[in-house]
Amino acid sequence: MSTLSWQKSSYSPEESNCLYLSRTPDGTIRLRESDDPDVILHTTPAALRAFLHGVRAGALDHLAGGPGGAPGM
């Protein structure tokens, strides 16, 4: 398998908890988090776009207990 070229999200802080993205030759999107880089999620550009659109629209706020965060946090 070829080595992936990872790009850090511009929304990630400098210290930790950084999100990295990479695109494979077949167009698949890979995501990983800096604290556990061996865990890699795979998705398609269309699915990632739909997810981000839903997040921006607030469609997932009810899952995290609203704008204030998850219950108990």
Verbal overview:
This protein is of the alpha+beta class and 73 residues long. Helices cover 18% and strands 27% of the residues. A hairpin with a 2-residue loop joins strand 3 (29-33) and strand 4. The relative contact order is 0.12.
Give the secondary structure arrangement, pairings included.
Layout lengths: L6 E2 L10 E5 L5 E5 L2 E8 L1 H13 L16
Descriptive keywords:
four-stranded antiparallel beta sheet
- Overall shape: it is globular
Structural class, judged by helices and strands?
A: alpha+beta
The helix-strand sequence is: EEEEH
Rg on CA atoms, Å:
14 Å
**SS strand fraction:** 25-35%
* First-to-last CA distance: 40 Å
Adjacency order of strands in the biggest sheet:
1-2-3-4
Number of helices: 1
What is the count of β-strands? 4
Low-confidence stretches: none
In a nutshell, what does this entry contain?
With 73 residues, the protein is α+β, with helices and mostly antiparallel strands. Helices cover 18% and strands 27% of the residues. The longest helix has 13 residues, at 45-57.
